[in-house]
Write a structure and sequence with these properties.
491 residues; alpha+beta; Outer membrane efflux proteins (OEP); four-stranded antiparallel sheet
């Protein structure tokens, strides 16, 4: 390339700068439709909420609230904190979020100029117009830029930001899911501990009853069948106790995995105290779920991502413009590389447009529109599913409380019936079959009473999860609350 006079270079550079400025101003258009949140019909109130449930003020999804501490169990608090630190599902979700953030940066970089440095040297022999042997040394900077005239990069960045926000909400949803599953497993394990304790007392009582029948038989006032019935009752209760121990072992293993530990190195001592009263969970308004539940927020962000991808697809209909430039030095002798005669530069402009592609752009546009329709349908279905979960668990809290109260009375009555049957058997007024029936009924009612208290606690956790996590709905958010909010504020 031949070097131009300094005046010509300045004029050319000024012209190029003016062109680049004009193109930069044009690069503000964005193809495709602007995003609008899909409309959702939210009911004014929950059907299953009675007067005891007070509407909570809506807040953004925040999986950092220590909602599990409201149950007043220090051992549970320690387990959830371990899960927050070491659970591998959360580690994978966090890594996926970092990938999404990096994808936003990659999309943004596509709209910026590229700058490169090139250097080289060589020695060649040519026989054009005579034999020549010479050197060639070059050093220069190369710059290239494809202006985003039709907003393809802008839409791609918009889609990436929406995807990153969805990934952040996925992380929040995964954290809430792991926390809720751990707390549910813990309460189920405590329920099994109480059932095991019930069966241990029952097995001991049945052993005493077996001794009674044996003494009665030895005295000639009881039949051999009475002893057989008593022994069968005793052995069956002990078998059920062993099955409960198996279930407890499996739940303990599940809790170990949730906290990021191997089951072989993890154990939980049996629960010895009675369950604390359940804390009150604010039900909130149906519309609040649209802000509090991270899975709903993620589905809505994916709808925004699909909308932006429509703009990316439609930008392919327009021509693309590319600009390039180079400035450097080229000389045969390295000693003269940086002298004025060795100075070389170039400016280039290219325009490309697709005239026929066999319907490729049209099909990609149709795919993007279909993906948008799918994302909207999934968002609305997620909202409807959230409404159902809250209704289900509101109903569970309400009716399980009433069922537990009735079952407690049934357990007390059956326990009294068992005691009376034993007294009557000792007096010889009834056969031992009446005692067996009374004992079986008492054990079944007591076990059901314990199970109902466990189900109440599990339903309480499920309601926390269904409402997006956090008891204190009107409390200020935590300092690090909401990765999705961070993405929105720092794109």
């Amino acid at each position: 390339m031949q070097a131009l006079p300094a005046g010509a270079r300045r004029a050319t550079s000024a012209c190029a700068l003016a062109c680049l400025t004009g193109l930069g101003l044009l690069a503000g258009c964005a193809s495709g439709p602007d995003y609008q949140r899909p409309a959702v019909d939210a009911p004014p109130a929950f059907k299953e909420a009675d007067g005891a449930w007070q509407p909570a003020q809506p807040q953004a999804a925040d999986a950092t609230q220590p909602w599990w501490q409201r149950y007043g169990d220090r051992r549970l608090n320690d387990l959830v904190e371990q899960a927050n630190r070491a659970n591998q599902t959360l580690a994978a979700a966090a890594a996926q979020y970092r990938q999404a953030r990096a994808a936003v940066d990659a999309a943004r970089a596509a709209g910026l100029p590229t700058l490169g440095l090139a250097a080289g040297g060589g020695r060649a022999l040519s026989n054009s117009n005579g034999v020549h042997l010479g050197n060639d040394v070059n050093l220069g900077l190369n710059v290239g830029w494809e202006p985003d005239l039709w907003g393809a990069v802008q839409r791609a960045v918009e889609a990436g930001r929406a995807g990153a926000a969805a990934s952040a909400d996925d992380l929040a949803a995964a954290r809430l899911s792991v926390q809720a599953l751990l707390v549910e497993d813990y309460f189920q394990l405590q329920s099994l501990d109480r059932q095991i304790a019930l069966y241990e007392r029952t097995v001991a009582a049945y052993a005493r009853a077996l001794d009674l029948t044996r003494h009665q038989q030895a005295a000639g006032v009881a039949l051999r069948s009475d002893v057989a019935n008593a022994e069968a009752q005793w052995q069956a209760a002990d078998a059920q106790r062993i099955d409960l121990v198996l279930q407890r072992s499996q739940l303990e293993h599940a809790i170990a995995i949730l906290t990021g530990q191997a089951p072989a190195t993890f154990s939980l001592a049996p629960a010895t105290d009675d369950a604390a009263p359940l804390p009150q969970v604010p039900a909130g308004l149906p519309s609040a779920l649209l802000q509090r539940r991270p899975d709903i927020a993620a589905a809505e962000r994916r709808a925004a991502q699909a909308n932006a991808n429509i703009g990316v697809a439609r930008a392919a209909y327009y021509p693309s413009l590319s600009l390039s430039g180079a400035d450097g030095y080229n000389a045969a002798d390295p000693r003269h590389l940086f002298e004025a005669p060795a100075r070389v530069w170039s400016l280039g402009l290219g325009l490309a447009a697709t005239l026929f592609d066999g319907g490729l752009r049209k099909s990609r546009d149709a795919q993007a529109v279909a993906a948008w329709d799918q994302a909207v349908a999934q968002y609305r279905q997620t909202v409807l599913g959230a409404f159902q979960e809250v209704e289900d668990n509101l109903a569970a809290q309400r009716w399980l409380a009433q069922e537990a109260a009735v079952q407690d009375r049934a357990a007390a009555a059956s326990k009294l019936s068992e005691q009376l049957a034993l007294q009557q058997y000792r007096a010889g007024t009834v056969t031992y079959l009446a005692v067996v029936v009374a004992q079986a009924q008492a054990l079944a009612n007591e076990r059901l009473a314990v199970q109902l208290r466990g189900r109440q606690r599990v339903a309480s956790v499920a309601l926390v999860k269904a409402t997006g996590g956090g008891f204190d709905a009107d409390a200020p958010p935590a300092a690090n609350a909401g990765l999705a909010a961070t993405v929105a504020k720092n794109p």
